[in-house]
Automatic annotation (TrEMBL):
The lineage of its organism: Bacteria, Bacillati, Actinomycetota, Actinomycetes, Micromonosporales. The gene is glxR. Residues 151-219 form the HTH crp-type domain. SMART domains: cNMP, HTH_CRP. GO terms for molecular function: DNA binding; DNA-binding transcription factor activity. This is CRP-like cAMP-activated global transcriptional regulator. Keywords: DNA-binding, Transcription, Transcription regulation.
Length: 236
């Protein structure tokens, strides 16, 4: 596996959206980008802000969320490095449809919409990748809606923990997920989600370390989430 952050002059190499582009084109696009650093809890952009840039998460992770009239938040997804967000506004030029907050210390590359669109006109492979990314977004939102209909709260908590905290071979940094963040992701109250997590800990499926959650029995959590005990590509 190539650590994309270690490639001098080509910081976009490990990003799926740009993987099919020539290295010279990636470097030219990266040269137009601005590096921005954020502390934990800092808002990167808010719903309604201009959609003038594509953001590449270089380090850390971000939470994409919507806020209700009473101030309650619903987290739509978490994007960790190396991930991309802001594709929708990039294409239609409309204001941001959601807000984004840094989860821990986070660093992003902001690619201007004008530079990105110039590149799309010269290389249609990039547009194909954008459509692929948008398709994945629709599938994810459809799955989230289905989970809220067919899974109970413990099932949604288990599925969220497995999807976000189980290690993968291409994971560069662990994600520390607080119980409050889990509550925002699964659409439950903090108190009810905390009770579910305490139950899981009592059963030996996980443990808490300060604000972080560590999974200790992936098979049990996957079963509770209605997922196969072993991931499809695990060979088990």
């Amino acid at each position: 596996m190539v650590d994309w952050r270690a490639v001098p002059g080509d910081p976009l190499r490990g990003i799926a959206l740009f993987a099919g582009l020539d290295q010279r084109i990636r470097r030219r696009l990266a040269a137009s980008a601005e590096t921005r650093a954020y502390r934990e809890g800092q808002i990167i952009f808010a719903e309604g802000d201009p959609g003038d840039a594509l953001l590449v998460v270089k380090r850390g992770a971000v939470a994409v969320f919507r806020s209700g009239p009473s101030g309650d938040r619903a987290v739509l997804t978490l994007v960790r490095a190396p991930g991309v967000l802001g594709e929708l506004s990039l294409l239609d030029g409309a204001p941001r449809s959601a807000s984004v907050e840094a989860v821990g210390a986070t660093e992003v590359l902001a690619l201007p919409r004008t530079a990105f669109l110039d590149l799309v006109h010269s290389d249609h492979r990039l547009l194909e990748e954008v459509f692929r990314a948008l398709g994945e977004m629709v599938r994810r939102l459809t799955e989230q809606k289905t989970d809220h209909i067919f899974l109970d709260l413990p099932g949604r908590v288990a599925k969220t923990l497995v999807r976000l905290l189980s290690p993968t071979e291409d994971e560069l940094e662990p994600m520390h997920l607080s119980q409050g963040r889990v509550a925002e992701l699964v659409g439950g109250s903090r108190q009810s989600v905390n009770q579910v997590i305490r139950t899981f800990a009592h059963r030996g499926w996980l443990r808490t370390e300060g604000r972080a959650i560590v999974l200790t029995d992936l098979a049990a959590l996957r079963h509770r989430a209605g997922l196969p005990t072993q991931p499809p590509d695990s060979g088990g």
